[in-house]
């Protein structure tokens, strides 16, 4: 059984989902991923969250640290990972990628958000490890 997420993680998760709804409602589908990323980060920053974009995460392998390991789209309050997409076809590897990112960074909560959908609720996937 999973240990429950912290209240801060849950609060960040709700804010991420609400930000995705707000951005999608105003912009709709069909734009570039980075447009959604900039707007999502703006909304979250306005709400007082610490938001970092396009963060390189080093990877440890075989006793060596490689700086060019992972790149996270968005990290909120150094706790929650958000991977953004703006593509028509959903690729199952995205979920595996998010799970790997969570495990390698020791984070517990992540979101995969695809903005290229008519209803944003169909584009949001929450993952907990």
Short summary:
Helix content is 37%, strand content 32%. With 129 residues, the protein is α+β, with helices and mostly antiparallel strands.
What's the domain count? Answer: 1
Mean pLDDT: 93
CATH class: Alpha Beta
Radius of gyration: 14 Å
Query: What percentage of amino acids are in beta strands?
Result: 25-35%
What string, H for helix and E for strand, traces the elements in order? HHEEEHEE
Strand element count: 5
Estimate the global geometry from the Cα principal axes: globular
* CATH architecture call: 3-Layer(aba) Sandwich
List the strand order in the largest sheet.
Answer: 1-2-3-4-5
- Major sheet, described briefly? 5 strands, mixed
What does this structure look like?
It is a single chain. A hairpin with a 2-residue loop joins strand 1 (51-61) and strand 2 (64-76). The chain is an alpha+beta fold. A five-stranded mixed sheet has the order 1-2-3-4-5, sandwiched between helices. Helix 1 (7-27) packs across helix 2. The mean pLDDT is 93. The protein has a single domain (7-128), classed as 3-Layer(aba) Sandwich (Trna Endonuclease, Chain: A, domain 1). The chain starts with 6 loop residues before the first helix and ends with a strand. It contains three helices and five strands; from the N terminus they run ααβββαββ.
């Amino acid at each position: 059984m999973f240990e429950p997420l912290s209240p801060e993680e849950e609060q960040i998760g709700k804010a991420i989902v609400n930000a995705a709804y707000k951005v999608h409602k105003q912009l709709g589908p069909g734009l570039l991923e980075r447009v959604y990323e900039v707007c999502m980060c703006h909304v979250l920053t306005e709400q007082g969250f610490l938001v970092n974009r396009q963060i390189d995460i080093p990877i440890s392998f075989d006793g060596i640290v490689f700086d060019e390991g992972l790149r996270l789209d968005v990290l909120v309050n150094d706790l929650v990972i958000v991977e953004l997409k703006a593509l028509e076809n959903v690729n199952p590897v995205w979920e595996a990628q998010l799970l790997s990112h969570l495990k390698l960074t020791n984070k517990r909560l992540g979101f995969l958000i695809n903005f290229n959908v008519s209803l944003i609720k169909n584009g949001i996937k929450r993952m907990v490890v």
